[in-house]
Design brief:
alpha/beta; Beta-Lactamase; Rossmann fold; 6-stranded antiparallel β-sheet; 40% helix; ATP binding; Twitching motility protein PilT
Length: 408
Amino acid sequence: MNVQEEKKVLEVFCRTIPEGLFGPDRVHYIIENIDKIKDQDKILLRKLFNKFLTSMIERDASDIEVGGHGNCGYIWMRIYGNKERAKDLPQFSDDEAATIIINLLNTNQRKHLWEHKNLDFSYTYLYERRNVNVRFRADAYFDLDTLTLNMRAINQTIRPLASLEFHPNVVRTMSHGYIKFGLSLITGITGSGKSTTLDSIVDHHNKFDPCHIIIIAAPIEYVHTSNVSLIKHREVGRDVATFKDGIVQALRQDPDIIIVGEMRDPDTIMAALEVTDTGHKVFSTLHTSSAVESIDRIIAEVHPTEQERVRNRLADVLISIVSQKLVPSLDGKRVLAKEVLIVTPSVKAAIKNNNTSEIYMMMNQGGAQGMITMEQDLKRLYLEKKISLETAITYANNKTRIHQILAA
């Protein structure tokens, strides 16, 4: 990749940074003075960044990392789950990388980045080889006083819900046509495909259900086109101030289904439970690795004096939890492993009585209703020769249980 012209633009600008500035003050100088770069040179730098994204797409990478102390000048990518240096791409100093990153942002975004030391945003560019607009979810943040950026590619095609291999009863449970209200959670660690699953659920409704879906996310990733359903997208920080505000305001917007991108704080959790109480169907995500942990996390997030009330409310409105992981497959890619909880009267009683430890065995024995533990699903993938024995054991939540069922 020949970047001599772009490198020259970066070197000329970075030489204007006073030598007496250190750490974040250098980033602040770039933020304040980026508009001194000529417009044609700013376009050149943006096109350079788009070349990195093109390289990312053509390597089938899910993420790209640019800038920051930890990058050691390299651009890094995550390819089939592994983080790797892209040694064939050009290297950049911390100041050069910060200039490339800040050049992507508008004035308000630059101000937010400096004030909060973090910025979530979305980015779109034209992938010329296929003549399609590709969207990315981005997060700019500081790493030892240097600016760094992560971007994750957003799938341009939605996986059919059937391809996720849910039990028919689980699909019915998540369907607005079958149950008009209630809370369904999709949980997992970062990069486990939660957003992909949510988009599949939205797309499933959009094919069959004449309903109104409001998506509240930070940022909006896949943009759905209304088909049978009417779909509205509200990006936190752009279309609405907070997740809580988006949920409360949605009550006056005649929704049937509300998608809450993430239940990340007590206010959002309480707002989601309250709107579900009003007879709406709500889908959301949590950063938890099991169904039981998800229940415990929601209750633990609120003040101790509120926990009993929240426990009872959660038991009344919770419909299902899908906890998922993307695990390395034998073909060198990744495959979905999932745990599914359907809230039966027994599960509801266990939540209300604070006996969540009993729920694992209910899932273990609830196969006929569509329930499955992570360990059971990992065993299935192993028996289908999709993953190795070591992978099944490594990704199990309950190591004792995975050894028991593999030996059975």
